[in-house]
Amino acid sequence: MYFSEEDIFERWAEKYDRDVFESDQKDEYPFAGYNKVLSFIWDEINPKKDAKILDLGVGTGVFSSMLYEAGSIITALDFSSNMLKAAKGKMPKATFIRWDFSKGLPKSLLEERHCYDYVISTYALHHVNEEKQMQILLNLAPLLKPRGTVVIGDISFESRSDLENCKNLYGSLWDDEEFYFVAEEVISSLSSSYRCQYKQISHCAGVFILKPLEAL
């Protein structure tokens, strides 16, 4: 029997948070450093009341719900109805969009020019290929307010050799159907549109901070 990626996430939703926690606690791929990634992003955003934040791949809403409770106005996107249901329980007044961003960004979002203080994505974009990742990231710049910022926390590596070393270390546990960020390649691809910073958090996770050049 074949299960699509959507089927898998619908079934995974109930135990997703536990699986992530266990992987992080064991300091193992793929979620080693997960809590430190979220803490780093929290400090970078320093959430303020009424800040408008778009979350791409909200999952069960663990992180966005903390921003929501701090007074941020959340728009959350995910392709799993079960994930969105869990997130809605934590953020009843947020705006939710069911969408598969392997298709890019929905037209309704692309029309929201200069709307968001932050666009965030945590452990979601590695499910689409590198070309689609870059397309999505480039399309986010017009959505930001002046001085707005894109913050991406995900499975990622400083260099291609670091990625290969991790792949060799974990062998059969490695997921060849996922697409992990390589910082030096991402920064090169986005250099004409963003000022890019990258912070390695664990041996398989890091955070990108992207500021549109036009806003500098």
Helix-strand layout with pairing:
Blueprint: H1 5-12, H2 16-25, H3 34-45, E1 52-56, H4 62-69, E2 73-78, H5 81-90, E3 95-98, H6 107-110, E4 116-122, H7 130-140, E5 144-157, H8 160-170, E6 181-182, H9 183-190, E7 194-202, E8 205-212
Parallel strand pairs: 1-2, 1-4, 2-3, 4-5, 5-6
Antiparallel strand pairs: 5-8, 7-8
Report what the structure shows.
This protein has 216 residues and is α/β, with parallel strands linked by helices. The chain has a single domain, classed as Rossmann fold (3-Layer(aba) Sandwich). Helices cover 38% and strands 25% of the residues. It is built from nine helices and eight strands. The protein has helices at 5-12, 16-25, 34-45, 62-69, 81-90, 107-110, 130-140, 160-170, 183-190, and strands spanning 52-56, 73-78, 95-98, 116-122, 144-157, 181-182, 194-202, 205-212. Strands 1, 2, 3, 4, 5, 6, 7 and 8 form an eight-stranded mixed sheet that branches. Helix 8 links the parallel strand 5 and strand 6 (181-182). The chain starts with a helix and ends with a strand.
